[in-house]
Amino acid sequence: MVDKVFLITGNKVSSLITDENSLKFSSATAESVQSFKEAFAKKLSLSTKLEIKYDSIKHIRKEDGDKDVIILYKKALGIPMDCEFSFKDSADYDTFFAFFEKEKSFIKSHEALKPLLAIRNYGIGLIVTLVVTVFSYYQALAITDGTAEEAHSGKARLFFHVVELLGDKGVLAIGGLLSCFLAYKVWTRFSNPPTQIKLTPRNL
């Protein structure tokens, strides 16, 4: 194991250690591995905790030029899950990958992403953006005409307020700009898929 607490940025987590049998993530920070373990072991805690056993990891990957590390692993009953985070210190990437390669015997490889896999997230984002833009546009027209349905929740009221402020032209302008950016990313990644570092357990 690496005797340090890694500072990370991720979904509800801010620190990470490499334990004997697993990776441990926490929303709390600690000055040492020992204090991290003690806090992690406490039953009553407000901290978000996540443990990923090494033998449950399917692969670890990171695109070249991107900061996000993605771990695909299996939870109970073999349900696939993923954990995405980035290190605050750029030197920690080499330390983290070297740990898995040298101490856990993971196989490190460089491979180009398949075009459809390279555009998946941006493609989904583009579709969602187009749907939201069209929906918001018609809501803006309905608000202007006074035919919009009454909002019953706080989120709905906030949404209608933002749409009313933007107006139909503002909605189209923002949605169009975002759609153009996503479409550009889809095109560039499809025509020239990025490469990625991938770590895979030797027994797979």
Kindly describe this structure.
With 204 residues, this protein is α+β, with helices and mostly antiparallel strands. It has 2 domains: 6-104, Roll (PH-domain like); 115-191, no CATH class. It contains 4 helices and 9 strands, in the order βββαββββαβααβ. Strands 4-3-2-1-7-6-5-9-8 form a 9-stranded antiparallel beta sheet.
Short description:
It is built from four helices and nine strands, in the order βββαββββαβααβ.
Helical fraction equals 40-55%
Mean pLDDT across all amino acids: 91
Oligomer: single chain
SSE order, one letter for each helix or strand: EEEHEEEEHEHHE
Radius of gyration: 22 Å
Beta-strand segment tally: 9
Which strand order does the major sheet show? Answer: 4-3-2-1-7-6-5-9-8
CATH class of the largest domain: Mainly Beta
Terminal CA distance: 22 Å
The CATH topology name of the largest domain reads: PH-domain like
In total, the number of domains comes to 2
CATH architecture designation of the largest domain: Roll
What key attributes describe this structure?
PH-domain like, alpha+beta, 2 domains, single chain, 4 helices, nine-stranded antiparallel sheet, 204 residues
